[in-house]
Task: structure prediction
Amino acid sequence: MSDRALAVVRAGALTTVQDQGRPGHAHLGVPRSGALDAPAAALANRLVANPAEAAVLETTVDGCALRPRSTVTVAVTGAPCPVRVDGRPVAWGAPVRVPAGALLDVGSARGGLRSYVAVSGGVAVDPVLGSRSTDLLSGLGPPPLTDGAVLPLGSPGTLHARVDVVPHRAPPAELVLRVTLGPRDGWFTEPALRTLTTRVYRVSSASNRIGLRTEGPSLERAVSGELPSEGLVLGAVQVPPDGRPVVFLADHPTTGGYPVIAVVRSADLPAAAQAVPGTPVRFLAVRRR
Result:
């Protein structure tokens, strides 16, 4: 195997390969997938002179440890965390040179949930439907990292960012999600709509890349029947039988039979990727159908 590769020493709780996703395949039942905190992934790629579409690693909570087979430049963004090379602290949010054979250790998140590790040349696993992203729902793309796995790398660029300060959006103390009500808001009572847009929910520990689940007041239905399965979009707020909203994220199903009460603005979804369990959630209605 080429020396342009990374050996996985510690995979972490859930580390996946992610890029910009595979849009345009919903008619095949394939969601977009891709990095949940897309701005953080894009920043990591810029710092190591990768193109925007290069694949990065998305870690969850406790990071990962990697050993490159050749000298590489790496950058870690997203959730702030300690970064070490052979035990020596190095910069988070900046390009760092990692010699061949050295151990890059990306530690546990100090705030937020997901960190992004970009490596010069990008992670060059085989694409599926035009993307290298791991899709946890459909199983497309590479599997989540395991200890001992080896990831191929692409050819590095020639220019690297020179930065003094990297802009960093702190993990939200309160997650405010702007929503457009509909398409199935009519399936809920008026008090339920007021509850959704005035009461505080909290992020559930059952949340994952498929959806951000909430804990809080149940939303009362005005219509007791069930819908035939219909299309779902990124950011859809679906209400299952327990009445508590679920915000669909990158690995969401493309169809579903529970009513969608609202849709979250796409600009607010990166913050949802970093909201830890227990974070207060408010749904702010910005336009009524």
